[in-house]
Write a structure and sequence with these properties.
about 80 residues, alpha+beta, globular
Length: about 80
């Protein structure tokens, strides 16, 4: 995903996926995070990383529902593929 696409998602109110270390053309689909793979998801509204996952699956399997604990706004997070 390009930086421009990430910014458009953030401006729309959706937290973009975290950057991965996969080679071009590779795609690993993960539906549940590993215990050691905890990522900090920044709130697209206020930028705080004081967020919590409220549901691992959102409206689709590729999104999770989060809530910011500072501004209390709910938001979608696109999981890293």
């Amino acid at each position: 995903m390009t930086p421009e696409a990430r910014e458009k998602l953030r401006a729309y109110g959706i937290a973009p996926p975290q950057c991965g270390t996969q080679a071009p053309g590779e795609a690993a689909l993960r539906f549940a995070p590993h215990a050691a793979a905890k990522v900090e998801v920044a709130c697209p509204q206020c930028g705080s990383v004081n967020t919590t996952e409220t549901s691992h699956f959102g409206s689709t399997a590729c999104k999770a529902l989060y809530r910011c604990l500072d501004c209390m706004e709910p938001f979608d997070y696109f999981k890293r593929l």
